[in-house]
């Protein structure tokens, strides 16, 4: 407030100040005469100059009064502060209420606008209805006179109804209607049968013809069914006859083309233990042996189960690329064509003829062609993997048809499984009988590495286990146990041909190790059989280690077994210095050489690096344990200290063992 008052004084008095210090220091009197001359007529200036000191006191008094007034105003404002805050809040609340009222009014405005649109629409509809009413009244006026002219009088109507000439007229009309019906039936049936005949033309796409042409005339077939059952039966018979012949021929041609793509895998002499064939394969080399084993190994053949919904083979393309396929590929292509054709035909017959039984008459021929081919093929098939794949394919096709909700091939697919399972079991029994009946002497190979027949068996077993897990129903479980027993019997007969127990155990050990490796690739489904071979492997490994140590450290092993117990406390037979001296000295002379020879033999004879390492570790651990028992025995024998210079330290033996372990 003081600052405002000072600015007012400054405006009145031209910037004069009453502070003496300021006047004495800052104000310059230059040009004062000129300014006085310019303002000599101002009453205020004249009064100030006249009164002088009195005006200065008055200004000081005014300034003091202004300060008091300012303080009083501040106190009044503080007293009214709560009222001002309340007023501010009330104004804010009023703003909110006014904003809500504005939004509500805006909504009313929009609603009123929509009502205006509806009113305009109603007005337009009212005008349209008025036009329609006017048109109808005009039409009524013109038709009334015409109706009056054509209406028969009641007397005429009674004469027509009661008169005898009506019966004669009805007889004449009935004859004409009957001739018309027969003519219509004849023309409709001839036209539809003509369309059926065009289906036999080469290159005709029957499905396109059915969908684009015949479906348009299904009401004609319904007319025949309701008004001329004889013609309807003729049409149905014509369709069944032509489609049966067309489809039968198509499937026969397709089968003949597929036969040229067939890759022959198994014949009657290709069972696992057939003597002459397997013996002939031994000198032929690795490639021929792999081709022979193709019928025992699933390999990439399992991919057919992942391609179950893929299009079938196109023979001309495959022939151009010189491709051959296992029979399960051909079987899947044939089944795929049959499913697609049957699905399309079933849907068409159901919609066009409304008689599902016609489908089975149409497909009597095609199914007979396929059945004949299947029986001939199965009779000459000795590939158990192929037969099991065909069973899996058929089960997957049953699922496909179930998902399509079409029962048309249920009987055929069930019959296919009835054909396949007995043939598979027959071929499977041939495999087992061939193992029992084969000449082990002829098939035996003088070597301890895994026998190729055992490898075939394990690959065959792993393949069946995978397929059984994919789509089996438990029928294979007992058969696989029978096959395992047959191969166990063959392995025993092979092992008996070896001259020593060590070679016998090594042969069985290598074959079990190979079996485990193959079964691991079959996954968790083969864990039970894999556990069986692991136990057999462990048993033969322990026996082989015993025989191996007995060969290279026989005197040590015999002495320990005969004289020293496991606990190193008691003696089986009480030894003396004369008994133990040759054992200690002989070991000290030859132990390094014997270790090297044992290492070289195991590395050479074991077919699996990991298995060989396990054998060496077990053998050297057993050797170290037995020699430690011998050393403790020497310490407890009276006079045994004389042999201390001949004892090899455990540290030296351990170092040598670690050296061979690092070379593995």
Automatic annotation (TrEMBL):
| Annotated ranges, domain Vps52 coiled-coil | 76-164, 168-224
Question: Where does the Vps52 C-terminal domain lie?
Answer: 241-544
Q: Which UniProt keywords apply?
A: Golgi apparatus, Protein transport, Transport
List GO terms (cellular component aspect). Answer: Golgi apparatus
Q: Tell me which stretches of the chain form a coiled coil.
A: none
The record's subcellular locations are: Golgi apparatus, trans-Golgi network
PANTHER family reported in the protein's UniProt record: OS10G0488300 PROTEIN, SUPPRESSOR OF ACTIN MUTATIONS 2/VACUOLAR PROTEIN SORTING 52
* Family that this chain belongs to: Belongs to the VPS52 family.
> What protein name applies here?
Vacuolar protein sorting-associated protein 52 A
Give the originating organism.
Triticum aestivum
Q: What is the lineage of its organism?
A: Eukaryota, Viridiplantae, Streptophyta, Embryophyta, Tracheophyta
């Amino acid at each position: 407030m003081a600052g405002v008052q000072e600015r007012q004084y400054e405006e009145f008095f031209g910037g004069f100040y009453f502070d003496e210090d300021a006047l004495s220091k800052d104000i310059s009197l230059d040009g004062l005469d000129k300014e006085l001359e310019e303002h000599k007529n101002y009453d205020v200036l004249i009064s100030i100059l006249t009164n002088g000191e009195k005006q200065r006191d008055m200004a000081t008094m005014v300034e003091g009064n202004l300060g008091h007034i300012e303080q009083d105003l501040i106190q009044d404002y503080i007293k009214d502060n709560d009222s001002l805050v309340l007023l501010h809040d009330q104004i804010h609340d009023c703003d909110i209420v006014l904003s809500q009222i504005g939004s509500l009014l805006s909504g009313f405005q929009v609603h009123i606008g929509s009502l205006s649109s509806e009113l305009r629409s109603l007005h337009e509809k009212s005008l349209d209805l008025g036009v329609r009413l006017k048109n109808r009244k005009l039409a009524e006026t013109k038709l009334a006179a015409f109706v009056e002219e054509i209406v028969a009088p009641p007397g005429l109507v009674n004469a027509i109804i009661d008169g005898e000439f009506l019966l004669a007229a009805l007889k004449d009309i009935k004859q004409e209607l009957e001739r018309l019906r027969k003519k219509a039936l004849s023309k409709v049936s001839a036209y539809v049968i003509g369309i059926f005949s065009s289906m036999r033309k080469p290159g005709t796409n029957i499905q396109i013809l059915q969908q684009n042409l015949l479906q348009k005339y299904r009401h004609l077939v319904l007319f025949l069914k309701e008004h001329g059952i004889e013609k309807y039966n003729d049409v149905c018979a014509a369709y069944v006859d032509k489609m049966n012949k067309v489809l039968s021929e198509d499937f026969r041609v397709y089968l003949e083309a597929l036969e040229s793509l067939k890759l022959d895998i198994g014949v009657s002499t290709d069972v696992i233990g057939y003597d002459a064939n397997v013996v002939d394969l031994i000198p032929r080399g690795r490639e021929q042996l792999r081709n022979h084993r193709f019928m025992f190994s699933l390999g990439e053949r399992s991919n057919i189960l992942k391609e179950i919904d893929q299009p079938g083979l196109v023979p001309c393309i495959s022939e151009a690329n010189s491709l051959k396929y296992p029979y399960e590929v051909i079987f899947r292509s044939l089944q795929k064509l049959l499913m697609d054709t049957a699905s399309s035909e079933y849907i068409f017959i159901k919609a066009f003829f409304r008689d599902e039984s016609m489908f089975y008459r149409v497909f009597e021929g095609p199914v007979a062609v396929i059945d004949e081919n299947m029986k001939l093929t199965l009779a000459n098939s000795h590939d158990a993997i192929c037969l099991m794949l065909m069973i899996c394919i058929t089960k997957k096709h049953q699922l496909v048809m179930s998902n399509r909700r079409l029962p048309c091939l249920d009987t055929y697919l069930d019959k296919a499984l009835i054909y396949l399972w007995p043939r598979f079991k027959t071929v499977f029994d041939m495999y087992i009988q061939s193992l029992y009946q084969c000449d082990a002497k002829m098939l035996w190979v003088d070597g301890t590495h895994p026998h190729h027949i055992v490898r075939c068996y394990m690959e065959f077993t792993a393949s069946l286990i995978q397929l059984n897990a994919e789509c089996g129903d438990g029928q294979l479980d007992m058969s696989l146990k029978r096959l395992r027993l047959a191969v166990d019997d063959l392995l025993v007969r092979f092992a008996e041909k070896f001259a020593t127990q060590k070679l016998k155990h090594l042969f069985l050990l290598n074959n079990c190790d190979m079996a485990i490796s193959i079964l691991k690739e079959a996954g968790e489904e083969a864990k039970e059989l894999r556990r069986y071979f692991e136990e057999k492997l462990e048993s033969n490994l322990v026996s082989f280690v015993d025989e191996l140590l007995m060969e290279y450290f026989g005197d040590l092993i015999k002495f320990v077994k005969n004289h020293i117990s496991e606990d190193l406390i008691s003696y089986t037979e009480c030894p003396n210095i004369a008994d133990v001296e040759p054992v200690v000295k002989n070991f000290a002379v030859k132990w390094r050489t014997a270790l090297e020879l044992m290492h070289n033999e195991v590395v050479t004879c074991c077919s699996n690096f990991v298995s060989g390492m396990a054998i060496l570790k077990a053998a050297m651990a057993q050797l170290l344990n037995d020699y430690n028992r011998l050393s403790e025995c020497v310490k407890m024998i009276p006079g045994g200290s004389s042999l201390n210079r001949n004892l090899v330290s455990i540290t030296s033996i351990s170092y040598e063992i670690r050296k061979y372990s690092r070379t593995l």
